[in-house]
Amino acid sequence: MNVLLLKAPDFSDQCRRLIASSSLFDPVIEQRSREIIQAVRERGDAAVAEWSQLLDATTSAKPERARAYGDIPTAAILAAADAVRTWHAAQRPADLVLEVSPGVTLERRWSPLRSVGIYVPKGLVSSLIMTAVPAQVAGVERIVVCTPPNGSAAVAATAALLGIDEVWAIGGAQAIAAMAYGTESVAPVDKIFGPGSGAVNTAKLIVSRDVAIDLPAGPSEIVVVADEGIDEAIIAQEIAAQMEHGPDSKGYVVRVGDNLDDALHEIEAYAAEHVALLGERAESLAGRIRNAGAIFVGPYAPVPAGDYATGGNHVLPTGGWAKSTGGLGLEGFMKTVTVQRVTKEGLERLAPTIEALAELEGMSAHKATARR
Q1: Structure pTM?
Q2: Would residue 199 count as lying in a domain?
Q3: Are 148 and 178 in contact (CB under 8 A)?
Q4: Is 254 helix (H, G, I), strand (E, B) or coil?
Q5: What is the pLDDT of residues 166-208, one digit of tens each?
Q6: Which residues are designated catalytic?
Q7: Contact 146, 120 (CB under 8 A)
Q8: Do residues 213 and 271 both lie within one domain?
C-alpha cells in the first residue's frame, strides 16, 4: 500500500510521477503492440495464431471460437445484468428537433452503432456484462467478443446467457487488431470497447486512428481519501481489491487532515479511475470532485460493489484520462446524425451571413450557394 501525505513537500510531484508511470506510456509495450497490430493487418489469421501461440500458449493454427463449459453463477450474472440494464436504459438520450430561426430547422437524431467489438480480460465476466448489456440496450446489431483463451469458457458461457454467440478465444493486442482490421475469420467492427492491460489499452490507442474506441480503461487505479480515525481495515480492503487486477495496478491513500481544499486540488490532478471517500466529509467532498472515473462515498460503498452489482459501469478512464472523459455509458454505443432543413425563405434570411463569412475566408464557391 502506498500512502501519499498531503503535507509532504513533494506531494504534487508524487502525483505527476504516478501518472507518468502508467503502463499506457510504456515504450516497450507500445513497440510490441505496434508489431503485433502490423502483423495482423498484413497476415490476418496466421499472425493472430502465431502471437496467440507465443503469448497464450495456444496450439491452433487459426483463431478459434471460445467454448462454453463449466458452472457459472447464473443468478448473480442475471442480477448484475438486470442492474446494468436498468441504469443504462435510463440514460437513453432524446432526439431533438428545433426551429432555430424562421425557415431553419435542425434535427439531432440518435442511432445505435451497427457493430461493436468487446474485449474481456481473462475470466472477467463482469466486464462482459458492463459492455455487452449496454450495447444490447442501445440496439447494436452485431456484438463481437474477444477474450484470452485461458478463462474463455466462463466468458463464453456468460455470453450465451446474455444471448451473444460470437466469442473468440483471442487475447491481447492481436485481439484488438483482429476486431479493428478484420481477418479471414473475424469481420471488423465499427468501435472497440472494454478494459484491459497496458498492452490492450496501448493497442486500442494505436488502432484508434482507424476505428473508434471507448476509452483507455486499465490498468486499475484507486485513490482512497481518508479522514483521521477511519478503520484501517476498510482502507486496506479497498486497496487490496484493486491490486488483485495485476502487478501494474496502483493504489494510494491520501490522508486529508485539515487541508481539504489542498487535497481536492491534488486528487483532481491525479484523476484516478476510482476514488473512495471515507470519513465525515465524504459526502461534501463528493460533489466537488470533477476528475475521477467513479466516486464511491462512505464505508458501505466499496468499489467492488460498482464492479459487480450496483449497475454503474466499471469501464472507467485510467492514466489521467479522467480529466477529459467519463466512464462508459449508453451514449458510447450510439451516434448522432444532424439533419438540417432550410426553406427558400430561410435561405434568404441566412444569405447575408453566408456571404459575409465566405468572403472573409476567401471561399467564393461557398458564397455562391447563398442565392438560389
Answers
A1: 0.91
A2: yes
A3: no
A4: strand
A5: 999 999 999 999 999 999 999 999 999 999 988 999 999 999 9
A6: 273-274
A7: yes
A8: no
